[in-house]
Amino acid sequence: MRWPMTRRVERQACRMHELMDRLDVDAAALARLRRGDAYAEARSRCLSCGTSNLCLRWLDDPHPAAQRPTFCPNLTLFESCKRRPGS
Fold first, then answer.
1. Which of 20, 36, 51, 87 could in theory staple to 71 by disulfide, Cβ–Cβ 3.0 to 4.6 A?
2. Cα gap 73→54, rounded to integer Å
């Protein structure tokens, strides 16, 4: 039997990584930032985020690149870790 909290955490983790993929975040750069503390803080913000419904809708949009996910509390951090052209 799985605990409801475990399922919620798993769903939030998947959602965060889907968002990172869509924003072309360099996950390795994020993981190295402040020796992993930035990633841990992003994960905590995601787990306690009150806009998961907006996040799901944005991820379900076939053309999300047309708009930035300004509802995301991690947006500034994710944008600071975007992949560089050619990397």
1. 51
2. 12
User: Burial letters for 53-86: b for 16+ Cβ neighbours within 10 Å, e otherwise?
Assistant: eebeebeeeeeeeeeebeebebeebbeebeeeee
**Residue closest to 83 by CA, chosen among 12, 34, 20, 18:** 20
* Eight-state DSSP code of residue 50: S
Domain residue extents for the chain? 4-80
d(CA 63, CA 60): 9
Query: Mind listing the pLDDT tens digit for each residue in 38-77?
Result: 999 999 999 888 888 898 889 888 876 668 899 999 999 9
Among 18, 72, 17, 78, which Cα is nearest to 45's?
Answer: 72
